[in-house]
Amino acid sequence: MNEYLLLSLAAFFAGTLNAVAGGGSFLTLPALIYCGVPPVIANATGTVALLPGYAASTWGFRQELKQLQGLHLPRLLMLSLFGGSLGAGLLLITDNNTFNQLIPWLLLVATLLFAFAPNLMAGRAQASPLVALSALFLVAIYGGYFNGGLGILLLAALSLLGHSNLNAMNGVKNLVSTVLTAIAVMIYAAGDVVAWPQALVMMLAATAGGYWGAKIAKRLPALALRRGIIVIGAVMTVLFFITL
């Protein structure tokens, strides 16, 4: 029961973080591994757990989605489907030992993305549509393989397309995350790499966290929240480097 309580708390706050800025995997992946779930299964299970949170936060941003002009959503969602499928397939052929060694590096990359997010966002409207869409496709592959830092990567890619309405971009970010995560989850399930008892408990908590996070996203001080996420990511990265 203590383990399920820990997983529920991790999933709730992960759903909240993902709705606001991303970084939920900093909580779910370590919590699952701490509870004895093998690394590859922990990564897949954490992604499954966060799926309804993405969907709930997308619903929370449904009005803001209408404010983002000039974006071809069907094309964007198709790129997300293909990229998410490819990333999930790559995870299925990665063994636990290899993924265990990759975890601290993936967490480090995700943490650095958060730390340097303002620099990534500063270059908006400077890339051609082909470059921006290619970046989105690569982000989708990354998201299908490892969910950490996905939110900020999507925001940065959207900024390359020239968008600056952060609330509307958050809505698109959550919609794209929902789509690519959904296809990844289907592939994970087919590959039998999901711990379903843990996933189902965490899905309920992440849904509540995602919906609540969408509501508070416009009220929280962004700088303080970002610094908190960076600290969480840094601590988790150091812990994994020490323990592996």
From TrEMBL:
Main location: membrane
UniProt topology in membrane: Multi-pass membrane protein
Protein origin, superkingdom: Bacteria
Family annotation (InterPro entries): TM_pro_TauE-like, TSUP
Record key words, sorted: Cell membrane, Membrane, Transmembrane, Transmembrane helix, Transport
Transmembrane regions: 31-55, 76-93, 99-118, 130-159, 179-212, 224-242
Annotated compartments: Cell membrane
Pfam families with a match to the protein in the record: TauE
Family that this chain belongs to: Belongs to the 4-toluene sulfonate uptake permease (TSUP) (TC 2.A.102) family.
Protein name per Swiss-Prot or TrEMBL: Probable membrane transporter protein
Organism, as annotated: Paraperlucidibaca wandonensis
